[in-house]
Amino acid sequence: MPAPVVLSGERVTLSIPTNDDVDRIAALCADPAVARWTTVPSPYRREHAAGFVTSLVPDGWASGRLCTWAIRMDDVLVGMISIGDIHDRQGEIGYWLAADARGRGVMSEAARLVIDYGFGAAPDGLALRRMVWRALVGNAASAAVARRAGFRWAGTEPLAAEQRGRRFDEWRGTLEREDARTPADGWPEASFVQAAL
């Protein structure tokens, strides 16, 4: 199972969220856009953030099934990114970002770092062969990050996503280790249009 690692880029540093981040995480996850497009509890409370950093994150790393990083710019937490559902050399990328950090290429940089780590050879990476991306239909911002990272469009799965007890249609994409990490063609027009909250 992997040990938690710090990943550093030009503008972002990815590190493990800690108790010092609880209030910041709680504040950011109260954003209606984060609630709309992710599976975080809503309404989001401080105890949710505390449980996240004290249980979910360390347990995920310890099991080898979920690797989670806080995205930091100038030592300020601006989002979260993870590789989850790790099994059979496959993992699923997931992410969210603070409102004031969106539209600046921050998540694309973070995604590149995480993808490189995921596909990297052990022991310095997870040695994955395949990564998947999933998002609720209408989340074009998430689709843009996946598309720029090289994910190939894999289609729409009706009612495949569950969010707080309800089912929703889901977009999917895939990235193989040997694929080019350049913007992928073949994404439908709908994935370029952000749905309203």
Radius of gyration: 16 Å
Largest sheet: 8 strands, mixed
CATH-wise, what's the superfamily?
Gcn5-related N-acetyltransferase (GNAT)
Structural class: alpha+beta
Individual helix count: 5
Write the layout of secondary structure elements.
Blueprint: E1 7-8, E2 13-15, H1 22-29, H2 32-37, H3 46-63, E3 67-73, E4 76-87, E5 90-97, H4 106-119, E6 130-136, H5 140-149, E7 152-163, E8 166-176
Helix pairs in contact: 1-3, 4-5
Structural features, described:
By secondary structure, this protein is α+β, with helices and mostly antiparallel strands. The chain has a single domain (7-192), classed as Aminopeptidase, CATH 3.40.630. It is built from five helices and eight strands, in the order E-E-H-H-H-E-E-E-H-E-H-E-E. A hairpin with a 4-residue loop joins strand 1 and strand 2 (13-15). The longest helix has 18 residues, at 46-63. The mean pLDDT is 96.
Short key terms for the protein model shown above:
197 residues, alpha+beta, Aminopeptidase, eight-stranded mixed beta sheet
Structure described in brief:
The protein has 5 helices and 8 strands, in the order ββαααβββαβαββ. It is α+β, with helices and mostly antiparallel strands and 197 residues long.
